[in-house]
Write the structure tokens for this entry.
Amino acid sequence: MKKLLILSRLKIHNANALSSPYTLGFPAITAWLGFAHALQRRLNEANEDFEDLQFNSIAVVCHEFNLQTYKGESDFNYSIISTSNPLKKDGKRPSTIEEARCHLKVSLVIEYSGIDQDEALEMKEALPALLHRMKIASGDLMNVSFKPELIKITNQQETKRLMSKLMPGYTLVERRDLMIEAMQNENLDGMDALLAYLSINSHCQEQENTEDEKAKVEWKQSRKHSGWLVPIATGFQGISEPSTVENQRHTAYPHRFAETVVTLGEFIMPTRVDQLDNILWHYADVSNNLYLCQQNQPYQNEQE
């Protein structure tokens, strides 16, 4: 049995769309797990009854997504729509580095443990006041009022009922298995395997036209794999030993330089999910200098 907290149709304004140093789009899964962890800590501190509360894993279902970019008729690349920051005293623009932003509507499914039914009802009442004082993926919560839900899942039929309530939308799952297969079978490195699944290939085929005796060319586009595949940031890899440095953020914990870990993800409709663990993400154990977010159970596409 799974005890779940459902935060439905959250409207988030100006969330961080720069999910890694070289990917732009849906916020990184580390941002959603970080929000769940921050919310848990606030609840732990808010009430003695919540000291043992734990948010074990989280699923994200996206209903609307609006990336703040612009592309003119004659432009080749998209441009970031920047914010209008106040001018300096001399009338010039401040030298701020503009970050990509997005507006989105999501539903969050959070698996929790450590509290009984009565304490869970208390948590439900305390959530709205806490959420409006928090950032979600660096964005602001725009809902004036919303009602958190508490449900229990015991079988596949109840899972399907929950997935139907989360429609229409798309949920993010990891497809690292595709990259591993390409690296092993085609002898590709990580970047080549990633690009092989993200690239769109165009092919032209000449067709004869008997009326004007001129050949027409038909263009077709294809990808290596069907499905809505995207690059996603799932964690970090340490590139230095834990140590103490000057002006580090927290003096109680060692500092470590790290770089983003990027792999393949896929957006799927919730109705294609049979097991809730296929879409729930959790923090993985640290090994080989990796700090990763992983799914409770890898998703397997039966259509492949």
Observations:
- The helical segments are 29-46, 117-131, 156-165, 176-185, 190-198.
- The two ends are 30 Å apart (CA to CA).
- The longest helix spans residues 29-46.
